[in-house]
Each structure stands twice: as C-alpha cells, then as structure tokens.
C-alpha cells in the first residue's frame, strides 16, 4: 500500500468516530424530522407521504404566525435586556475590579447559577413576582402601591424577566471574554489622545466588544426561541411560544407531521440567526487583526 | 531655556511592594531629546506612564510647561505617547487612527483631513490612509503610531521603547528618522529604552536608571567617558572590571594592585587612600595589544596575557584574553588597513595588553551600582 | 385519571416503579402496566401478585396524551393501559388495543351503565375497555373572596374577577363553553359553533390569570392568592386546599359539568393476557375498587363493590349511590372531529 493511501486511511480512522457520532446524533434525527414534515396527518395518527400540506398550513393558519411573531418579539426583548444587564456587569468585572482573585470570585458568582436547576430559578421568580410575592409585599409595605398588582406575574413581562435572568450568564461569558481581550493600551492610547472616558468607551471599548455582544445576544435569542418552560411557569394566557405549540403537536394533537414542519421552520430561523451573527462576528474579528 | 518637564521626588510602589520609582527628580528643557535608559524593571517605563498620567504617583509632583498635572487624568495632559506595541485601534483605518484625537476634540472636518494628510506625508505613509492596521508591516504601524502621537502637536512626545519590535536594519533607519522628526518638530522627546546604543545615538541627554533611581544623567559623551559608577561604565558600552587595592596616590593618578598586576589609573577628581578597595574599569576598545615587533605607548600599563578566544565581528575583532583573573579580559580591535588579521596573535599566543593610565577608570568598590 | 404529579414537564416518562413480587409464591407470569399513578399501588398489588403469581411492573404517564405516542412507537412493551374515555377511541381507531373477551370480565354488570355504554370503549359491537374510576370537572372558588354564590360557567367571564380566573389547559374548555353558549352537540360542533366558542374563549383571555396544567399548580395558584375561581378535578384539589386552610368550595354549574371515567384496555398483541384479565377483575372487585379509591380519592366505577368496602360517609362523599349526580355530568367523549377541536384549542391559546 502506498504511504499516502495509508496515511489517508489512518486519518479516516481518526476522524471516523466523531463523524459517525455527528451523523448518528445530529443528521439522522434532523433527517427523520425533515421526513416527518412531509407526512400526512390522518386520524388517528399519521401516514407516510410526500406533500407540502403541513408547510402550507403554517402559512395559511394565522395562529402560527401570531405565535412566531410573539416568540421573535420575546426572544429579541430577552436578548436586548440580557445584553443591557450583562454588559455593565462584565465591564465592571474586567475594568473596575483590580484584584484578580476577587474578579475570578465575582465571575464565578455570575456563572454558578448555571449549575442551579432551571426550574428552581424560574420558580424563584414566581415567589418574587406573585400577587402575594416578595416584590408586591414590599411595594405595598413601602406605600408605593395601595394594593398588590397583578401586572408582575403571568404575562409576557414575567417571561422576558425570567428568561433574561436565566440567560444572563450566557451573555456575561462572551462579553467578559471580549472585553478582557481588548488590550489595555488601546484605552490608554485613546485617553492619551485627549479623549475622555465616555468617548473612549463609545469610540474604542464598545466597538471592540461587539463580537462578544453579538455572541451573547445570539445565545440569549436562540435559547429563548426554543424555550417552552418559562411560558408555562410564569407566562400568562397570551404567552404561548412556538416551542409550546410544537410540544402540543407532538403530544396532545398527535400531529407529528405538523410539529415536524414547525420544528424545521424553527431550525431554519435559529440557524440563519446563528450564521448571520457568526458572519458579523467574523467581520469584526478581521478588524481586530 | 525653560523647563518643559519638572519632576520632583517622584515615587511609585506597586501592589506586592515593588518600588518601581524611588525618589526621582528630573528637569527637561523644551526641545530636548532625553532618553531614560536602564534594564527592564529599572522603573523607566513607570516614569513615562506617570508623566502620561496612566499611573498616579505615591509621592512627588509632575509639572508640564510649568503647570502641575500630577492629579490630571491622561486626557488633560499636553503630552502624547508612542506605545511600545503601537496600540493602534484595530477597528479604524490609518487615517481614522491618526485623526481620532482631533475628530473627537471637535476640530473641523476639513482641517482634520488636512492635518491627517500632512502628518501622514511627514511619516511617508499617505498612500496607506485607507488601510487597516492589520494590513501594515511592523515599520508602517510604527509610523502610524508616530503620526497619531504628533498630530496634536503635543509639548512633549513620550516614546515607550518604540523601536524594540523592529528588526535591526529597520531600527537603525527609524532612529535616524526619529532624530530628523525631532529636529523638524522642535518639540521635546522623552524616550524610554533598554538599548544603550539607541540612547547614545539619538539623545541630547541620557538618564541612566537602576532600581527606580537615577544613577547618572548627562550627554552620551559624558556617560561614556566619565561614567559615575561601574554600573554605568558597564551598562554604557562594555567594560573590563577588576577588583583592586590602592597602593599609592601620585597626583591625579592612582597606583593599584589587582592580583599580580600593578596598574596606574586616573582618579578623575575622586579621592582615595592607600589601602582602599577599588574597581578598575577599562574599555575594550581603549586597550591595545603589544606583540613582537610593535611598541607600546610610553607610560602605558602593560598586562601579560594569553589569547583564549577570537570573535570575528566583521568590522572589528574581539579577543578574549586570560590575565589570571576570574573573568577574561576583552580587547576590541578595529579592523582597518593598518591591522592585518593574519599578523594578529593566534589563540594560545602570549601577548601584552597596553592601556594608558588615562583609560583606566578607578571607582570606589562600594559605589555599586 | 390521575394527574397529581407534575408530569407535563417531563413529557412522556414520569418514572418507572418496579413492584417487587411478594412472598415466596412462584412467578407464573408478568404484567406490564402503563397508566396513572395509583392504579397499581403497592398496598393492593402485593396481594394480587401472591394470589395470582403475576408480577406487576408499572410505568406511569403524566397525561392521557402519552398513551398513543408510546404505544405507537414502543409496541410490545406494555400489556395493559388505563385511559380516560375521551382518549380510548383514539387507541381503538389506531388499532393499538385489543377487543375484550367479555366472558373473562367478572364484574361487568355491576359497573355503572353510563360508563359501560360510553362511545369510546364500544365499537362495532365489540367492547375495548372496562371502566375503573370516575369523577367530575366542577368549578371551584374562594368563598372569602367571592361572596355571591356562582351557579354558571358565566362566572368565568365576570369582569369583577378579572385577573383572578384560571382555566384548565385542556380542550374540554370547548365543551363547557359550547354548553354555556347553548349548544347541546358539544362533541359534534359545526364550524360556525366552533368559531363562536373560540371567540368566546379568546374574549375571556384578558380576564384570565393563567391556564393551569397540573393539580399541584392549581393548588399553588389558590394558595398564593393568584386565583379565586377556576375549574378543577372534582374532589382532589378542594380537599388539599381545605387541608391548607384555604376556604374553597366546589359547585356544579347549571350548564352541567364534565365527567370523566378511566378504563382498562389491553394492548394489541399482549402475550400476558391471562394476567391482564386477572388484574382487571381484581381491580374492579371490592378489594381493588376500594384500594384504588382510598389511594386516589376518585369514585369507584363499580358501586356494588364500593358499597361492600366503603364506610357510608365515604360512599356518600364519593357520590357512589347518587345516580342523579352521575346523570348531572356530561361524560367526556371523543369529539367527532378531534383534530379540529385540538387545533381550535391551540389557536385559542396562541391568540393575543
């Protein structure tokens, strides 16, 4: 056997397990899902077919884009809110905490909630936002409100708040990394050129941290887009998100073909957002040289 | 002439107890080219950063143009810095980098564009005005950094090891360019470097630092010919150092014994007593070799030696000689028409080193550094 | 029907409980049960195992919607399922369950006729299910917050209780609302009727605090003061809340409340049919009926057996002797156009 051939074969041997893994656990499920999306619902279950009725139904029935639009809106709100809250936190950690050990400890404090159950953290907000919850009790006690308000829980606001809280660590991490990567002497150079702290932030720090912001916002957006727990736990009667509809199609409605078609649409949306953000991020990285 | 920079009693200790700057006072006249020279960790960069405002001193004052700026933030000081690794903004073009300070301080657009062009022309980079820093070579980035720092016409230009990242040829060319720029702009340059050659070539005055203190401050010639301490003698150029004991004082000459050798040296006004421990310092290029058939200068010290190593440097030949001391004695010979390599003593050959007493510097032994 | 566990979250698999074979009796067979928690409780299963030699292995579901997907994908694993009457028809139509050999069913004639004749378990002259337990879906309210005694589903549209109303996240809301709108054909609504029901339920959304999914969730909503009035699973939540000192009361609306009944069905192709029939007979006997009823709190489908084993207070509390009560319920059936109903309910939930 030629050496080159042998080398190619051994390279294949090294690559085969991860390839097989990806094929088995990524492409095969997606392929199955894709196939199902062309099946036909026929009472009581569904039958194999190749037709576009499921996709057509998504276009014709307005309930789906109501939910799609709402999901997009909530995901965008979560992404914006999470960035708005995570950015100052990451900035503070990177630029204002001088002691490396304290910085590491605070960073961990931000990340540690990721190890706490999602459900537990979502439930915590229920006890805070409820009619007889901590926040309402405080507002009434302090005299800001005369009686408890229902506006805090079981609506889209509560969903956005809960998901923002849950996904903040996912935004802090990339923003922190992006800020940490900015050479300190760029900020010094800006100040050296007579530019004050605020303009330095706007002119140097912020543009150079955009890759981190994009990555964080993409995390928050995509994770929210596929979430189905928060709407059930803290969402109101008008808080159904797309993942809840998919869940119901695979469960109660026994309409796997429609559920599969919905999943494919979600997959396309999420993938295009990820690739768009990736492209933007790469453009930004090119600038960093 | 007025002093553009006045530093008095400057001190800075970093967390961990490192005294980076330990009571430094310095005056720099307007238009001077001054170099802070010393090995890494001597505090030279910290002094520069204190002047720029990136660090705050624990004690002491900094006056720029007669104004106390000790408590001013960097963006209110009339100085600009060329950073060691240039610190160009990676997300801006060359033109945007250079014009950044002007644009934000509200200089009219047309004037900014004008000044960017003028400054880039000065550093010969006008054609790169729309390039990104990542597309430039090291030397080009260096010039952009320079252009960005001089466009605001600062009273003082601070240069933090600006040439250290360049290769030798480029570095020498940039040294000349910097000197020309200094002449053209007429502003004060304060350079930080660990390269004594760079310091000697470019500066009007050199400040030698060690462990956060100023050891000596003077023109390159003064430092070279009259080093204040063996440390300076060794740091500026090269020196053969020998421990010795004063045997006798004869006018301005000191007679000292170093092992088996008896040498006559110049006191240069320093006072010694017989019996004092001293250090003798002899520059390698200020010693000559006496071989068969050549005569030593009258009155010169003669040291018996054996050649141990030839180091060929092209324009010069460095010889290491064993004179019965721990360290080898180094002699540099300029290779010119008068010196024929072939007639030089070979390794193992016996020779005598001839040094006139004026070229043997005598320092008190405890004066280290 | 047993939805006490918060099963919805984990979808299909709630847990797997293996009931150890009791005593020294030889194992003559096995029985794999898929269904609601409580229908194979250790308190009475051990007795069954030592008597018959059938070893019972139980897998629990969190929702009636779990049966069809599980049986469709994992055939051959389960022998017997406990399914509510609105879902039985789907399993029959999908061919996932066997018609029963009625000669092997011992207590059939003692069971309430209403449940025996349910559409969901009868098809083409064949019987597919044996009723086991039953209950109602009444309305429940906080007596300290709502002083004016309600008597109709209309109270769920009462502006005075805006933000304090909850509704079960289930298509049965369509049945109730159809009756409120005066339609009698709740399981065969026309498109126009369905549209009217949909609009009525969308109209209700601004008044709602939450669509509730599990018993535990509804109990929390009442206990934390979020909700004052809602529908409920008869008997269970009200008892739990009263235990916590929350003043709540159930009532059957004048439009009639929904009723439900759970049924045993045998999975198609089950190799353990003998054990399956033995278990059906055991659980519909006095021992089994009271065993299940005391664990779950549900009413027994066999009043003869219930009479034999319940105290008279319990017998009365569970409406075992009250045929009028059973008649006052509208028993769940599978709607003629299940897909359309499901889609309508999804559209209502998805609407703004």
Descriptive account of the structure:
The complex is a heterotrimer of chains A (289), B (369) and C (352). Chain A is an all-alpha fold. Helix content of chain A is 76%, strand content 2%. Chain A is built from 13 helices and two strands; from the N terminus they run αββαααααααααααα. Chain A has a two-stranded antiparallel sheet with strand order 1-2. The mean pLDDT of chain A is 89. By secondary structure, chain B is α+β, with helices and mostly antiparallel strands. Chain B has two domains: 3-233, P-loop containing nucleotide triphosphate hydrolases (Rossmann fold), CATH 3.40.50; 239-367, OB fold (Dihydrolipoamide Acetyltransferase, E2P) (Beta Barrel). In chain B, 23% of the residues lie in helices and 36% in strands. In chain B, the strands form four sheets. Chain B has a six-stranded mixed β-sheet, sandwiched between helices. In chain B, strands 13-12-11-14-20 form a five-stranded antiparallel β-sheet. By secondary structure, chain C is an alpha/beta fold. Chain C has two domains: 7-135 and 260-321, D-Maltodextrin-Binding Protein, domain 2 (3-Layer(aba) Sandwich); 139-251 and 334-350, D-Maltodextrin-Binding Protein, domain 2. Chain C has 14 helices and 15 strands. In chain C, strands 1, 2, 3, 4, 7, 13, 14 and 15 form an eight-stranded mixed β-sheet that branches. In chain C, strand 5 and strand 6 form a beta hairpin. Mean pLDDT of chain C is 86; it is low at 1-27. Chains A and B meet through helix 8, helix 9 and helix 13 of A and strand 6 and helix 2 of B.
Compact description:
With 289 residues, chain A is an all-alpha fold. Chain A contains 13 helices and 2 strands, in the order αββαααααααααααα. Chain C is an alpha/beta fold.
């Amino acid at each position: 056997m030629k050496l080159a051939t042998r080398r190619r074969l051994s390279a294949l041997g090294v690559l085969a397990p991860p390839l097989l893994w990806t094929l088995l656990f990524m492409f095969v499920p997606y392929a199955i899902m894709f196939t199902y999306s062309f099946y036909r619902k026929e009472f009581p279950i569904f039958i194999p077919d190749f037709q576009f009725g499921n996709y057509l139904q998504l276009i014709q029935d307005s309930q789906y884009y109501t939910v799609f639009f709402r999901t997009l809106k909530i995901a965008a709100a979560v992404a914006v809110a999470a960035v708005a809250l995570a950015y100052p936190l990451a900035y503070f950690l990177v630029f204002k905490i001088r002691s490396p050990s304290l910085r590491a400890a605070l960073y961990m404090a931000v990340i540690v909630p990721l190890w706490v159950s999602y459900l537990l953290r979502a439930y915590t907000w229920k006890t805070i936002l409820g009619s007889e919850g901590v926040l309402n009790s405080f507002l009434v006690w302090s005299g800001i409100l005369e009686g408890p308000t229902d506006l805090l829980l079981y609506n889209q606001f509560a969903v956005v708040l809960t998901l923002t809280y849950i996904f903040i660590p996912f935004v802090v991490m990339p923003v922190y990394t992006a800020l940490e990567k900015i050479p300190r002497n760029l900020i010094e150079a800006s100040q050296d050129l007579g530019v004050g702290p605020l303009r330095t932030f706007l002119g140097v720090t912020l543009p150079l941290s955009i890759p981190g912001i994009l990555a964080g916002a993409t995390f928050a957006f995509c994770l929210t887009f596929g979430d189905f727990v928060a709407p059930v736990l803290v969402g109101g009667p008008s808080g159904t998100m797309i993942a809840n509809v998919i869940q119901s199609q695979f469960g109660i409605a026994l309409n796997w073909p429609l559920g599969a078609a919905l999943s494919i649409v979600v997959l396309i949306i999420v993938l295009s957002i990820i690739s768009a953000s990736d492209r933007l991020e790469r453009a930004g990285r090119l600038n960093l040289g | 002439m007025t002093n553009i920079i006045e530093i008095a009693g400057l001190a800075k200790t970093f967390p961990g107890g490192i005294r980076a700057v330990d009571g430094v006072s310095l005056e720099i006249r307007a238009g001077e080219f001054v170099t802070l020279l010393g090995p890494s960790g001597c505090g030279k960069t910290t002094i520069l950063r204190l002047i720029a405002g990136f660090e705050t001193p624990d004690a002491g004052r900094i006056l720029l143009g007669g104004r106390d700026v000790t408590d001013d933030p960097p963006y209110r000081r009339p100085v600009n810095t060329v950073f060691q690794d240039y610190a160009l903004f990676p997300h801006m073009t060359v033109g945007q980098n250079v014009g950044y300070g002007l644009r934000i301080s509200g200089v009219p657009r047309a004037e900014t564009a004008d000044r960017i062009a003028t400054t880039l022309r000065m550093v010969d980079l006008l054609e790169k005005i729309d390039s990104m820093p990542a597309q430039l070579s090291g030397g080009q980035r260096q010039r952009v950094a320079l252009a960005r720092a001089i466009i605001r016409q600062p009273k003082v230009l601070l240069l933090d090891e600006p040439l250290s990242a360049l290769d030798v040829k480029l570095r020498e060319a940039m040294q000349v360019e910097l000197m020309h720029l200094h002449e053209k702009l007429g502003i004060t340059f304060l350079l930080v470097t660990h390269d004594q050659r760079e310091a000697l070539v470019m500066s009007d005055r050199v400040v030698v630092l060690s462990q956060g203190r100023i050891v000596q401050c003077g023109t390159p010639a003064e430092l070279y010919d009259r080093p204040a301490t063996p440390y300076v003698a060794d740091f500026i150029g090269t020196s053969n150092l020998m421990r010795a004991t004063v045997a006798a004082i004869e006018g301005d000459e000191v007679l000292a014994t170093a092992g088996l050798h008896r040498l006559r040296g110049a006191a240069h006004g320093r006072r010694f007593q017989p019996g004092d421990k001293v250090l003798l310092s002899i520059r390698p290029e200020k010693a000559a070799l006496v071989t068969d058939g050549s005569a030593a200068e009258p009155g010169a010290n003669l040291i018996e030696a054996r050649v141990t190593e030839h180091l060929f440097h092209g324009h010069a030949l460095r010889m290491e000689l064993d004179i019965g001391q721990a360290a080898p004695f180094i002699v540099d010979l300029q290779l010119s028409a008068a010196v024929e390599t072939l007639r030089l003593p070979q390794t193992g050959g016996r020779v005598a080193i001839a040094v006139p007493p004026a070229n043997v510097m005598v320092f008190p032994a405890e004066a280290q550094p | 029907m047993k939805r006490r566990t918060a099963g919805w979250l984990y979808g299909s698999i709630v847990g797997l409980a293996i009931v150890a074979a009791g005593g020294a009796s030889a194992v003559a067979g096995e029985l794999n049960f898929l269904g609601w928690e409580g229908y194979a409780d250790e308190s009475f299963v051990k007795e069954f195992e030592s008597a018959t030699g059938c070893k019972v292995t139980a897998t629990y579901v969190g929702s009636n919607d779990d049966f069809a997907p599980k049986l469709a994908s994992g055939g051959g694993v389960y022998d017997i399922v406990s399914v509510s009457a609105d879902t039985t028809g789907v399993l029959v139509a999908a061919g996932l369950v066997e018609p029963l050999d009625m000669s092997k069913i011992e207590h059939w004639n003692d069971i309430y006729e209403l449940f025996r004749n349910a559409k969901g378990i009868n098809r083409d002259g064949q019987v597919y299910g044996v009723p086991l337990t039953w209950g109602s879906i009444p309305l429940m309210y906080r007596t300290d917050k709502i002083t004016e005694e309600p008597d109709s589903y209309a109270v769920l549209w009462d502006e005075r209780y805006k933000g304090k109303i909850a509704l079960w996240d289930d298509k049965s809301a369509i049945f109730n609302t159809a009756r409120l709108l005066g339609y009698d054909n709740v399981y065969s609504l026309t498109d126009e009727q369905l549209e009217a029901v949909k609009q009525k339920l969308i109209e209700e959304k601004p008044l709602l605090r939450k669509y509730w999914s599990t018993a535990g969730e509804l109990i929390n909503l009442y206990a934390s003061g979020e909700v004052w009035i809602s529908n409920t699973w008869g008997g269970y939540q009200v008892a739990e809340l009263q235990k916590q000192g929350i003043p709540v009361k159930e009532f059957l609306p004048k439009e009639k409340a929904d009723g439900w009944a759970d049924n045993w069905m045998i999975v198609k192709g089950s190799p353990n049919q003998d054990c399956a029939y033995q278990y059906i007979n055991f659980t519909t006997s006095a021992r089994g009926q009271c065993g299940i009823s005391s664990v779950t709190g549900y009413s027994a489908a066999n009043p003869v057996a219930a009479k034999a084993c319940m105290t008279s207070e319990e017998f009365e509390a569970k409406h075992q002797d009250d045929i009028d009560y059973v008649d006052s319920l509208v028993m769940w059936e599978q709607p003629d156009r299940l897909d359309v109903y499901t889609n309508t309910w999804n559209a209502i939930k998805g609407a703004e």
